[in-house]
Amino acid sequence: MTMDHDEIREALTAMRARDLPTHGGRTLAYVYDSGLASADAIGREALAAFASTNGLDPTAFPSLLQMENDLVGIAGRLVDAPAGFAGVVSSGGTESILLAVLAARDARPDVVAPRMVLPTTAHAAFHKAAHWLRVEPVLVDVDPVTKRADPEAMAAAIDERTVLVVASAPSYAHGVIDPVEPIAAAAAAAGVRCHVDACIGGWVLPHLRSTEPGQQAWTFAVDGVTSLSLDLHKYAYTPKGVSVLLHASADLRRTHLFASARWPGYTMLNTTAQSTKSGGPVAAAWAVVHHIGADRYTSLARDARTATLDLAAAVDGIPGLSVAAPPDSTLLSLVADDSCDVFTISDEMLERGWFVQPQMRLRDLPATLHLTFSAATAASSALIAADLAASTATAQASGPARSAPELVAMAAAIDPATLDESTFTALLGAAGLAGGDGQLVLPERMAPVNALLDALPPELREALLLGVIDRLARPTP
């Protein structure tokens, strides 16, 4: 069935109505809003203008190569990249991280069973890279108070099979910068690469240096840092689909480049995991970065940072809620005491028009509430604080969300390795999440579901959530 323009627009509008808002500062995860209508407009214009171009062959579309090289250069200057550095533009932080792990692994063909040393707060993209690339993750507990990586424990975890050591600037879960200097020094002493994941901080932290001279060192200015990732579709406020991976030299980059002439078609040459890739996101990023400019990025970064600090201070006055760790950037992590739980607070905030992200416990790290502040959020700090206080009070009145013990026992008895459709369907039914046709039905309030997942070990949590996404991502009848 064909649809005319008006029908398509109406259908798109109807589908979009259920989505979280991408502008206005009310979605405190996933999206980043500069509050600059002109930046959004030029980004959309460039995205559309270059949507049909293809970054597969830079000789066919030299404009894309020119824009990529320019973006890599701007990013490198932000993070003190040395002379001779090299980089690539990828589709996002996960792809940048995958490529960094690939480059480190393939630079050491002598290591039969490679490992990488990660703080437990390292982004889940490293676990994806570990799974896909068969690089064993060696997890090191962070300091339970500061939530920062423990450099002594990280150094002790390096062995002859280690090909990469990782630090975050900042960590997504808690918004703190790891002690990069001793971690990178330990990696260098062992002859191992060190990657700094600055996907979320790389475009904002440099713009805070002048007002926060005590900021921990984390860039290429730190001896031993060999690669660094930073996303433009976060605090550069560009449309989604653009990250940059930087290497301290072209030699370090070489092991994630790919070429194949072993077929009768064109010789495939790739700098990233993608082959065909639309030039739209690159052009949009180039346009937005040059439209906003360094001075305005500094202003936007300070706005987001001020909002973060203001809310952190306000949380000190909210009974039942506290800051998990003093924030180093524009991310805030909150923890609840025994009188309530972050899952109910999250539901209550959504009722009040705010999306805040619940994060589940891991080892000795408690469940937390994650808030990402962008420039557009700054004007709403007082309102967020008031709604957080009201949401926490409501959560305290109802008490912590808990799942029925028999449901937790039923779920805990499942072997993640053998979870099948019938077992998963039975669990959905017991949890009240199955419709009459056995399909998944998500509740409006997620606290009981999140409390159940929080009570389970990570491996089982992963298996159950894979079952959820499998049920959600199926063709429409």
Q: Please identify, by name, the CATH architecture of the largest domain.
A: 3-Layer(aba) Sandwich
Strand order, largest beta sheet: 1-7-6-5-4-2-3
Strand fraction equals 5-15%
Main beta sheet strand tally, sense and closure: 7 strands, mixed
| Low-pLDDT ranges | none
Residues in helix, %: 40-55%
Integer average pLDDT: 95
Kindly report how far apart the N and C termini lie.
Answer: 15 Å
The CATH class of the largest domain: Alpha Beta
**What count of domains describes the coordinates?**
3
The CATH superfamily of the largest domain is known as Type I PLP-dependent aspartate aminotransferase-like (Major domain)
* Count of extended strands: 13
Globular, elongated, flat, extended or rod-shaped: what is the shape?
A: globular
Structural class: alpha/beta
How large is the radius of gyration? 23 Å
| Number of DSSP helical runs | 15
H and E string: HHHEHEHEHEHEEEHEEHEEHEEHHHHH
CATH topology of the largest domain: Aspartate Aminotransferase, domain 2
